[in-house]
Amino acid sequence: MSKPVIGFIGLGLMGGNMVENLQKRGYELVVMDLNKDAVAAVLARGNAREATSPKALAAEVDIVMLALTTSKVVESIVYGNNGILEGIKEGAVLIDFGTSIPASTRKIGADLAAKGAGMVDAPLGRTPAHAKDGLLNIMAAGDKVTFDKVKPVLDDQGENVFYLGALGAGHVTKLINNFMGMTTVCTMSQAFAVADRAGVDRAQLYEIMSTGPSNSPFMGFCKNYAVDGVSDLGFSINNANKDLGYFLEMAEDMGTSARIAEGTSQALQAAVEAGMGEGNVPEIFDYFLELKS
Question: CB of 59 within 8 A of CB of 87?
Answer without folding.
Answer: yes
